[in-house]
């Protein structure tokens, strides 16, 4: 269960795990020290905005107005960049469809490496919890880099260090795939505060895109 915390300095609202109840720490937005209330100390306000219970002046006007939540939308430049990169990668994968197998064995891991950061960023943009303040700036890129590194490492372990051909047999997908999916979901949860379901879809998005590009390139991904 999560505890709703509102910073007294910047008035940002976010969720904190109940294991931090009663503890103090910096606000993720303004860095001022805040105290996480205990479960029994939480106050639920059911009155609507601009109600009779709002604080009013002598003339009846509202003195304290509710702070509207800022809905973060996907920037236009980010959407265009993602779309252009996706189209470019599709064309590039098709162009190398007739390449030698040795060339594909080099291009496949290189593509998985280069695609990780933009796919991780795009997945977070669409799957993040609107109730939480989004990560921005340096913290966003650091978390994106960490998550990307784990996803890339997962592909490396799955495809190269586990016995078998680099084009994995079906048993590896059936029996080991869920374990790697769980690891990816936990990574997304830790890096971006996603829940387990969203974390799994975040990891599956990266895996799915790289698989589709691999199939377009003509890789024998499922063995046989």
Would you write up a description of this structure?
Helix 3 (137-161) runs antiparallel to helix 4 (170-192). The chain is elongated, with a radius of gyration of 23 Å. The protein is mainly alpha-helical. The protein has helices spanning 76-95, 101-127, 137-161, 170-192, 196-217; strands at 2-6, 13-17, 24-26, 33-35.
Summed up, the domain count is 2
Q: How large a portion of the residues is in β-strands, by DSSP E?
A: 5-15%
- Residues in helix, %: 40-55%
- Mean pLDDT across every amino acid position: 75
- Please write the string of helix (H) and strand (E) elements: EEEEHHHHH
Derived from helix and strand composition plus strand pairing, the structural class reads mainly alpha
Intertermini distance: 46 Å
Please provide the count of β strands.
Answer: 4
Gross morphology is elongated
Strands side by side in the biggest sheet: 1-2
- Our Rg estimate from Cα atoms comes to 23 Å
How many strands, what sense, and barrel or not for the largest sheet? 2 strands, antiparallel
Spans of at least 5 consecutive residues with low confidence: 45-57
**Total count of helical runs of at least 4 residues:** 5
Question: Could you give a short description of this structure?
Answer:
With 224 residues, the protein is mainly alpha-helical.
Give the helices and strands, then pairings.
Elements: E1 2-6, E2 13-17, E3 24-26, E4 33-35, H1 76-95, H2 101-127, H3 137-161, H4 170-192, H5 196-217
Helix pairs in contact: 1-5, 2-3, 2-5, 3-4, 4-5
Relevant terms:
single chain; mainly alpha; 2 domains; two-stranded antiparallel ribbon; 5 helices; 7% strand
